[in-house]
What we know:
The protein is α+β, with helices and mostly antiparallel strands. It has helices spanning 52-60, 82-87, 105-113, 125-130, 132-136, 147-159, 175-185, 197-203, 226-233; strands spanning 2-6, 12-23, 26-37, 41-45, 67-72, 75-76, 91-93, 189-194, 206-211, 214-220. A six-stranded mixed β-sheet has the order 7-1-8-4-9-10, with helices on both faces. Strands 3-2-5-6 form a four-stranded antiparallel β-sheet, with helices on one face. Helix 3 runs parallel beside helix 6.
Amino acid sequence: MTIKSLKRKSSRMLQxxxxxxxxxxxxxxxxxxxxxxxxxxxxxxxRNGVGKTSLMRxxxxxxxxxxxxxxxxxxxxxxxxxxxxxRKGLGYVxxxxxxxxxxSVKENLMTGVIVQPRDKRVxxxxxxxxxxxxxxxxxxxxxxxxxxxxxxxxxxxxxxxKPTEGIQxxxxxxxxxxxxxxxxxxxxxxxxxxxxxxxxxxxxxxYVVMDRGAVVLAGERKDMVESEVRKRLAV
Length: 235
């Protein structure tokens, strides 16, 4: 599971237009277009190796695109470095979590606020309301956490780039419910990359299906033809 969150007040926050990406002579993305809107969860589905991770890396600036455009609130950001995009509110949780295993949980979290002005580089209490286990493990090394705990740490770190407001701890029990709650708050657009259909379907407002580096199906969940999506996900 990969999650990218963005924070702003517009109704349409992210627009990817006809993006092509190459690794040497190999083309990873083929004229990919999609959008993500505030208050909605957009799920990108597809088998392994179809370009989902390349798409996320292109959006956050970890990989340079050949052509096409990536706009955020109407501003072209495809030429901006990753740290500038992070300052603008893009948070990224990669599939492998990519936490710093030798740093403590607290130090890992602090890397999420480093993009903020110096006087705002503090750990917001709402992150501990969202993921209470992290408070108990602030002094432990990230590499000593379980896989699920590392996933929570990675999500919390991404959200700290632009903290959310007023999270109620009693309603958060797991990552799926956390995503649902963040959607309901209405100040985030959430883009999830997933290959397991049922989990993504139950969370999604909108969906995109990729195959061989291209978007082959897209739309709102209410209009989804499950048999068509499943066929694209079958090995």
